[in-house]
Amino acid sequence: MNQADNQLASTHNPASSQRQAYSLQCCVWLYLAAISCTVFSVLFLDRPLSTWMHHNVDASIIFKPLSQMPLVFESLAAIIILACVNSTWRKQLGSMALTLVLTLVIASIARVGAKFVFGRTWPETWIHTETGSNLSWIHNGVEGFHPFAIGAAYNSFPSGHALFTFALVSVFWWRFPKLYPMWLLAMLGAIAGQLGQNYHFLGDLLAGATLGVCCAQLSIHLGEKLLEYRAKSK
Question: What is the residue-wise DSSP string for 112-146?
Fold first, then answer.
């Protein structure tokens, strides 16, 4: 039996199909659990936790560097993508570079679209312009969703920092699974940094993390399909 026959046999293998169905079922349940945690946080945890963080936590030296976690992985992604200009590196990292490009594009679209759709106000007042400052929970007692509202004052949900961190780190985790403790710490660090600085509500961070993982999964799937199509067309 040649390689093509082996692949055909594995495609029609009931055990393989059962494993794929089980994996899909696990993903669905995990996403439902993540969405449920986000909704619970928005309804019951976000406002009291934000108030507590404002009055009790002042550790910028610890949390501020962690809050910039996306910059680390965006820089790593840029290095890998640029390295693929060289043919030698392209052979080794080409598939990962393609996935990273897709991840950055999809995550950017998801970030802008989701923030516009949900239009949530911020926990703190960060935006100061000639026309005024953004309303917030801490300074004005204002917290809510304003779907399709235009302006940076309504961009809290989901967290773009959490979205990009979880999206890019998920790709690195997929490519280098043995380093999963490092990737897990990076994810938790991004959440801790944003929450510790009170930049976002917990619900914003959970939503961003969930959407980020989804973007990474979609990018990995599309990248594999594109590579398969390219291989068949040769």
Answer: HHHHHHH-BPBSS---EETTEE--BHHHH----B-
CA 197 to chain centre: 19
pTM beyond 0.85, yes or no: yes
Place of tokens 């801790």: 192
- d(CA 197, CA 216) in angstroms, rounded, equals 26
Query: Using one digit for the tens of pLDDT, what is the confidence trace for 135-177?
Result: 999 999 999 999 999 999 999 999 999 999 999 999 999 999 9
CA distances, 152 to each of 147, 165, 194 (Å): 13, 21, 17
CA distances 10 to 4, 6, 17, 43, 44, Å, are 10, 6, 9, 46, 48
CB 122 within 8 A of CB 156: yes
